[in-house]
């Protein structure tokens, strides 16, 4: 049963039941240390089991911007291939976090090629019609803010302490924001929260039928059996961390059950399942690259 759970989790996260598709193994290749220091804030946060909750939370928040929601509604394959869509997003995050700069640039270019054709129109929070493009820096900023806020919040709730503290994570991950054409991403936790509130206070966010459709979809377990029950707890855990004004727009209420504790138990079970196999983690492949580079730089005796 544990191995079945492990295979399902790895398939959802990497598209491969063994957890080592070609793009993961490529983390051991490359000629530099990459964008982020080993064991630093980004490595710690993105290597945490709390990411399983953070991913759900980020998708919920991102859906509240009608421009971002229009792009998902018009172009995303999440309804037909939710696990494939998830694995594609995980791939970009992992490669940017742990890969060489060349691999990170290739993955960012891959995402950008898809984004170039994503465009259309939407009705904003004031009722005015606007055009959108996935390459629009304003939309990219909202997606970046929602992602960083979700991963930081869930790490603070369920993960280990972040090296350098919350500001270190926000500052480090601002580099990923710039890769995605965010002109001036926040570099402190306070600025991150302030900018998120700004979207709310300016009335740029909206809950509508499209948002309710995404919420309904994310509520449904994408895994069968016990894994599906665990997923429902992770969903409720994600909702519990979302401030009330955003929950109201999403049409969600915090569960009266002790879902924070329940989420901690599910994450511990998932962590043990993932650790039960012999395969390497993304960090392990990346460390192979770093060790090789260090050995190449070491003076010969």
Can you offer a commentary on this structure?
- With 301 residues, this protein is mostly helical.
- Helices cover 64% and strands 3% of the residues.
- A two-stranded antiparallel sheet has the order 1-2.
- The mean pLDDT is 88.
- It is globular and about 65 Å long.
- Strand 1 (119-123) and strand 2 (129-133) form a beta hairpin.
What's the arrangement of secondary structure elements?
Blueprint: H1 2-14, H2 22-25, H3 41-46, H4 51-62, H5 66-75, H6 82-98, H7 101-115, E1 119-123, E2 129-133, H8 137-158, H9 166-179, H10 189-201, H11 209-219, H12 225-240, H13 244-250, H14 259-275, H15 282-297
Antiparallel strand pairs: 1-2
Brief sketch in words of this structure:
This protein has 15 helices and 2 strands. It has helices at 2-14, 22-25, 41-46, 51-62, 66-75, 82-98, 101-115, 137-158, 166-179, 189-201, 209-219, 225-240, 244-250, 259-275, 282-297, and strands at 119-123, 129-133.
For this entry, give a set of tags.
single chain; 301 residues; mainly alpha; two-stranded antiparallel ribbon; 2 strands
Run of helices and strands: HHHHHHHEEHHHHHHHH
Biggest β-sheet strands, sense, barrel: 2 strands, antiparallel
Summed up, the helix count is 15
Indicate the mean pLDDT: 88
The oligomerization state is single chain
Rounded to the nearest angstrom, the radius of gyration is: 19 Å
Note the gap between the termini.
51 Å
Low-confidence stretches: none
Please tell me what the overall shape is.
Answer: globular
Helical/strand content category = mainly alpha
- The portion of residues forming beta strands comes to under 5%
Number of strands: 2
Query: Helix coverage percent of residues?
Result: 55-70%
